[in-house]
């Protein structure tokens, strides 16, 4: 049975117990969320020795870090280094998006080297193998697509981005709409190309039951890929995007009915004033399926800083109800990220997720900030470093310029004119004792 | 006459014409905003050869970069370097917050070296000189406070943070409320200490007319300092803060009546779900005075990344109506910023301001993003670099890893599996021609 089937039968699985303890909620809270489909648990039945992670309503917002080779960078070592860096920086899940080198070998290695849930986008591999086998992506067969999906599932992949909510309703609406950037989803682009060339409907849509069968067998969480997501501010909330969300919502119903855990992937590029509506729309159209947002970048103008544009959008999305956010690194739109980029990306996304958690009132979120405020008020630098989201970075910056003329308990910004210090003398709350 | 007095008399000054051209609005739009007090123009009458900047409703959100020495770092050269870096990175204004070394000399040098409007916080200097003169901040005299303000104004300072909205109504409410971090404003801390020690009302409040007289004489824009701003998430929107805003609103009325341009300074640390209310409250309580926010940091837990926590809050604040945001650097809460920190801080704040401008529909904002989207769609890398907010950074990142096995027109993230490239073949919009 899948976690969803167990939850519906009132069974509290050991995975539910594990994630409940992690989230500091009751196992029953988890069971109920899973039964309703507002929570999913990432844990492939074939995956041994990994730690399940729950995503959804009432839980801490999770952060995904994507790693993987590209045609221009096929080193397994580098990707394993990124995996390690992402994990150390606090990523909750890893996605392997490899498109270069020994794709099967890399996936198996990543699954072996981490206890975090691992996701993938099987269509990448199918498309690349189609080029090798048939000379072109548009020649790939439905059989190839499902064979790759099953292979990933059998290897233990815990969640998969599958672009099943893309059909001719969506593609035709896109053509009629006229977009600035058309399609920026790679999976969406491969499949749209295939559909238009073959004048045939997307097999992932027409043979959705086949997909559900595989997902159920391994309890893979289906992540409905946002094939039609806006790739720039100008395309946000257009008719093609919303048509895609409607189709995705219908597929969520079918997946749940079949006993398959499911979430929906979202944009992308979304201006600040569209984020609340974007999240609300997805939640309403899908009966509150967990939302995995891939950005949301609030402006297009800042290549080199998309960890920041996406942290802005990610915080807002998380506050508005998004459950899972994908990190974006400073290398986005420019090149494949390095290990250092991965670190920046994970921390920025965690800041965004946490800012959203404060707004949503997630359990334990406010306490973290309170601990820092108290450490600051008491000028307890050791404690500030312990509480910091990135102790290493905070210590490095402070140590670069220690107070020379001032006391040890202040910093070089204000020296002994520190407001904390001045006020403590007059408001009766001595610094160091509050 | 001040800009406000001229605007009320229907006069369009050369400063109004200048800023109108910069903002791509009509001079009459500026005149009307200045007359109503929803727009201020930063331009001290004594300041020769500087470029005025307008701040307020309907205009691009501006970014301030603060520089200045501290007791532990008194180098004029370093602060002038920061000034240059801030200006090159696109700061709209500079604040000189010097508290170490030759404070008067540094201010004059900064005013001489930039054409940007320059702001200051005169109480810092008064307090520091009081220590030298009398042995303690609490011994400073009202005369000292007003003398420093007049000296700064005579030097050409265009806007001043003055903590005049701090009185015993506010301090007593603070004591009664019980805050986690009490007062984090340095000016607020100095004055609260003074008030409690001397058991006397804040002279900047009781002698507000004297302040108005100086501001009017030089047409200095009064920036009502947020003495009582929340210094941590836990203190946001408490009764002390709101009491301060009420007093500030009353002083705005008096300043406008007197013909003095005025804006209000705001927090600080504000969680995502408080930002809209915080901005709306300030706007309503002050009859729409321009709002200069000093953060807004959406979480306390990320020292080393407060350029990001404040970019999240700054974008939201700007979208909600804030008109002017102060940069925050990665060094915030840890040490005095370096020139490199200044650069990071300015760019992050500009991203936030622009994200807010997109949401507010500021003229020209959407066109910038559209230019980038078109350059991306057509795989025109040269144009992407030209349009980027930080060309230098974008070029550096891209060049670190150029495509090896793929064509020149893609990047190493996807190589020739670039969605833009794939789609262009099938949707009839060839890449490079859209």
Automatic annotation (TrEMBL), chains A, B:
Catalysed reaction, written as an equation: 5-amino-1-(5-phospho-beta-D-ribosyl)imidazole + S-adenosyl-L-methionine = 4-amino-2-methyl-5-(phosphooxymethyl)pyrimidine + CO + 5'-deoxyadenosine + formate + L-methionine + 3 H(+)
Gene Ontology BP term (one): thiamine biosynthetic process
Signal sequence annotation: none
Keywords: 4Fe-4S, Iron, Iron-sulfur, Lyase, Metal-binding, S-adenosyl-L-methionine, Thiamine biosynthesis, Zinc
Binding site for Zn(2+): 269, 333
Chain residues that bind [4Fe-4S] cluster: 411, 414, 418
InterPro entries, alphabetized: ThiC, ThiC/Bza_core_dom, ThiC/BzaA/B
Cofactor annotation: [4Fe-4S] cluster
Residues holding substrate: 95, 124, 163, 185-187, 226-229, 265, 292
GO CC annotation terms, alphabetical: cytosol
Root EC class: lyase
Entry's EC annotation: 4.1.99.17
Cofactor note: Binds 1 [4Fe-4S] cluster per subunit. The cluster is coordinated with 3 cysteines and an exchangeable S-adenosyl-L-methionine.
Pathway assigned to this chain's UniProt record: Cofactor biosynthesis; thiamine diphosphate biosynthesis
GO molecular function terms listed in the Swiss-Prot or TrEMBL record: 4 iron, 4 sulfur cluster binding; phosphomethylpyrimidine synthase activity; zinc ion binding
A Pfam family that the UniProt record links to this protein: ThiC_Rad_SAM
Role played: Catalyzes the synthesis of the hydroxymethylpyrimidine phosphate (HMP-P) moiety of thiamine from aminoimidazole ribotide (AIR) in a radical S-adenosyl-L-methionine (SAM)-dependent reaction.
Protein family (similarity comment): Belongs to the ThiC family.
Name of the protein: Phosphomethylpyrimidine synthase
